[in-house]
Amino acid sequence: MSLKSLLIYLPAVMLCMGCQYTLSAQTNPDGKLRIIAFGAHPDDAELKAGGVATMWAAQGHKVKFVAMTNGDIGHFKEAGAPLANRRRAEVAECARIFGIETEVLDIHDGELMPTMENRRKVADLIRDWQADIVLCHRPYDYHPDHRYTGELVQDAAVVVVAPFFSTNTDPTKKNPVFMFYSDGFKKPYPFDPAIVVDIGSVAENKWDCIGAMPSQFADEHSWQASYRADIPKDPEGRKARILELVQRSNEAVADQYRDKLIELYGEEKGKSVKYAEAFELCQYGTQLSVEQLKALFPGF
Ligand SMILES: [Zn+2]
Q: Which of 40, 48, 149, 200 is most buried, judging by how many CB atoms fall within 10 Å of its CB?
């Protein structure tokens, strides 16, 4: 099949698979979902999807986080291989806490580009994982690594099912559901969640992961400590303050999308959710209704 004919063919596949997705997801050989989440740096997927990943993993679903870059310049005192090695170890500890797998690509922080080589890498990772659900940044972020991660995943969306796109991996058996992490950017349009997940039951796992990433969230010269003027100088105060900021950002997601939480969980529970993670449905890949998404996400 030529790429051109594949492009013509895909919308029909998407329509068809959209209506049957819940059924087909349950017919994976092991009866479990496979989820892959791309972050630009070794902390992004952890921050945006650590809670939902823990919940999926607890149900026996298979989750993998991929950092597209190695984070080797995101610190105010150290850089290069020693920093990349620290960060690889930090996300490995988060993966242990969450019960998931993790991989950090060896691309320099700040240098990710939407090249053909990287599109192949992303497509191969999705195909190799045989992903049912793919998570990534929206392509409208201030950081080019975040933007290009979103672009690369979207560019891979059209070829993950193509038999002859890659000789390294088999095509995915199904067209995955692609979803974006929440963000605060307003242009060209604000984040528009399709699903908002109550992560309260696993919030401690997420905070433990934040505590396991001192190069990002606790060092005197870590990214968070150095670029924010409101971070205390003493180690314990600094660590507590940064954790509080992360907790508040998860509270803010719940508060900002409270109407959606009430719609999804009902009035009583929707109003009581404290910490949440939210995901927008990408227009590429399988398209699902809210009810179909609730069947795939944990906690509904
Ligand atoms: Zn990042």
A: 149
Q: What is the DSSP string of the chain?
A: --HHHHHHHHHHHHHHHHHHHHHHHTTSTTS--EEEEEESSTTHHHHHHHHHHHHHHHTT-EEEEEESS--TT-BSS--SHHHHHHHHHHHHHHHHHHT-EEEE----TT-----HHHHHHHHHHHHHHT-SEEEE--TT-SSHHHHHHHHHHHHHHTTTT-TTS-SSSPPPSSPPEEEEE-----SSS----SEEEE-GGGHHHHHHHHHT-HHHHTSTTBHHHHH-TTS-SSHHHHHHHHHHHHHHHHHHHHHHTHHHHHHHH-HHHHHH--SEEEEEEEEEE----HHHHHHHSTT-
What is the whole-number distance in angstroms between the Cα of residue 39 and the centre of ligand 1?
Answer: 7
* Structural domain boundaries in the chain: 3-199+276-296
> In this predicted model, what pLDDT tens digit does every residue of 169-198 receive, in sequence order?
999 999 999 999 999 999 999 999 999 999
Cα 14 to ligand 1 centroid, rounded to whole Å: 30
Instruction: Give me ligand 1 centre to Cα 293, in Å.
Output: 26
Ligand 1 mean position, distance from CA 149 (Å): 10
pLDDT in tens, 46-90: 999 999 999 999 999 999 999 999 999 999 989 999 999 999 999
Topology given in CATH for the domain delimited by 3-199+276-296: Rossmann fold (3.40.50)
